[in-house]
Amino acid sequence: MASTQSEILQNIKDLQPESLSIIRISEPVSASHPSKRSSDASSDVFESPSPASLEADLTHYKDLFSKLRFSYLEQVTKEKFLRAIVGDPPLIVEAVENTELEAQLAEVKAILKEQKDTVAALVKELERRGRDLSRRYEAVELQTTLMERLPADIKELKESIERLREQNAKPGTVDGLAQGMNLPLDATISFTREKQMELARLNEEVKSLRQDLPRQTKELARLAYGLELLEKERGEAVENAREAVNRRKDGGETGDGLEMRGRWLKGCEDGLRGLLGVEA
Q1: What is the DSSP letter of 41?
Q2: Per-residue pLDDT reduced to its tens digit, 1-60
Q3: Would you say 169 and 20 are in contact if contact means Cβ atoms under 8 Å apart?
Q4: Other beta carbons within 10 Å of 237
């Protein structure tokens, strides 16, 4: 597998002996123009070319060419006119000849316009193909980079799998976790769904208990307050009982009413302690 991947990467690199860039494409043009120009376009286009700078440079030269063409036609027309005037004999053009020349000029202009349209269509097609090739080249470069990193990533993943298997094989591993770690893909997905459903159920129970917590807290506070009152009454009853015992020992009244009240309070206290689970 490793040798096959290496061979594929080497074949791709052989198909790309050197990287394409706008600098390499512009080297033939920049070699024929060693000197800088002073114009509105960027003057450092040959030092650090870019698509925007090259487009500005092309627009600049188109403008210069249009001005040069206009100057050339103007000079040639003036020269022909002067030669026709000062010639011996002077060149006289009849109206019929002008009409024929205008007809020929119209035909030539029509042909020229057709050729310009063809050239413009070719330029658009070349631009489209250039952008498409640029996108494909960038995609190939990205895929090549990913393929170069792929063996190391695969090796790292294999090491992680082996490490997890070793950890899972150690004694003391939780049975449920060990079972989930050794399942195939479909069973693992099913096991994960079951655990997620169980987790959702537990979350619902926790949510329900949290919602019921304020009511339970209020109930506990009410019972605690009642227990505190009973404790107070119990203390009073115990004190009264002690006084009654002392009076009985001293030969006083029996105090049966206080004794019965103490027994009743004692029974209430025992009942509340049993409900709340509080030991005496």
Answers
A1: S
A2: 555 667 776 776 666 655 555 555 555 555 555 544 444 444 554 556 677 787 888 889
A3: no
A4: 20
